[in-house]
Amino acid sequence: MIILRDDDNTISKLIDRYGSAILYLAYSFVQNRQTAEDLSQEIFMKCYEKLNTFKGESSIQTWLYRIAINHCKDYVKSWHYRKVYASEYITKMLKGQENDAEKKLLQKEEQTQLFDYILKLPAKYKEVIILSYFHELTMKEISIVCGVNVNTVKSRLLRAKSFLKKIIVERSAEFERTIAGRHVDKREKKNNEGRIS
To answer: Rounded mean pLDDT of 80-107?
Structure first.
């Protein structure tokens, strides 16, 4: 158990225990590894500055996650983020392809595709599903972190699952159409080659 004291040793212990989780959480908001690393550093700096405000009314993890989510939300709302995001989006559109290099942060093969779908959810649904399934927080802890009541958390989780199911079904249908199209192209190519010979 970490005892929160206003010293460097405490913040080092927090970083050791929660550093990866906070980076993961920040990445889920900004989808850019470098930005997520910068945000993680800012979050731990903010925690260091607020150590004396921790009253023990919730767990250290819940207190830390609440600071992290609020900081990420503030960043996403900021003019700087909107400008950078718009610039990156336009660049990707002009190139005609997405750069997936940053997403290698989460290369557990069975989770990567699902996480990509989760990133497409609206923020209020994305944060509850990430806190529940990836960080394993209880409903009560999520309600404290997000500043909403438990019933709202439950409702958002249900909506998030519904959105995810819809996305997965749509992507599966797209994949099947793509595969079917390739088979048709191959058959047509074979038929054309047969006519030529």
So the answer is: 49
Q: Which of 56-60, 115-119, 127-131, 172-176 has the lowest mean pLDDT?
A: 172-176
CA distances (Å), origin 136, targets 11, 26, 56, 62, 160: 22, 16, 20, 11, 16
Backbone angles phi, psi at 57, to 5 degrees: -75, -20
Amino acid in position 88: E
CB atoms < 10 A from the CB of 185, how many? 10
CB 25 within 8 A of CB 68: yes
**Cβ–Cβ under 8 Å, residues 128 and 118:** no
- 116 burial level (CB within 10 Å; 0-12, 13-18, 19+): middle
